[in-house]
What does this fold into?
Amino acid sequence: MNKWILWLQILFLALFFVLLFAGKPMLWLLLFVISFGGAFFFGRFYCGVICPMNTLMRPVSWLGKKPGLKTNRVPAWLKSKWLSWSVLLFLAVVMILSRTVLMKDLPMLLVLLVVSVLFALRYEEWVFHNHVCPFGTLLRISGKNPVRSTRVEEDRCVACKKCEVVCPSAAIVVDKQRNTAEIDYSICLQCAKCITVCPVSALSYGKVQR
Ligand code: SF4
Ligand code: SF4
It folds into this structure.
């Protein structure tokens, strides 16, 4: 992995806990709102660089493989397109009610973090990223057609599928007919893992040609 991304992930993970324990979760949500806008231009960098859930899910997912906890069988309800919207609605209602009725912030971000870690123990990471995460639900909208993103130089690609294997969100797939990798920008986390493994430097981050 790009070492700069790793350092940034650690930095943002520390910031997340500092804000949470200082009772300032709204500042984290402000960071998310800024990232939501930024995704129109730079893709979902919040997911790949800033998100504490993604940062923790990777090592936990690796651990999940050890005792055989992980399964490839994902129940149909988990793949429902309404699930992540329902989670988003539930989270928003609880946060608003806790502020207005209880006059305090319930630790919903921490709850979500624990849920993401449990998912990473049981399922491949894309299940949480693409079907459960409420932040991802919103970022799929603003990150759908970014000005800049991880992109494929199709005439360089040799269709080796190494990128497919490392992608945590199943955003990059080799099209057998065209014999080249293709990225679904709406679910690309901009984590740069595919860039690191490509043997022919067919992947890079930059302006998307349309
Ligand atoms: S396509 Fe590449 S940058 Fe995007 S999520 Fe997959 S591995 Fe990360
Ligand atoms: S790793 Fe590179 S060469 Fe291999 S399929 Fe992906 S983009 Fe193509």
User: Anything to note?
Assistant: The longest strand covers residues 148-152. The beta strands are 148-152, 172-175, 180-183, 203-207. The longest helix spans residues 3-21. The pocket of iron/sulfur cluster (ligand 2) is lined by residues 152, 157-163, 174, 181, 197-198, 200, 202-203 (CB under 6 Å).
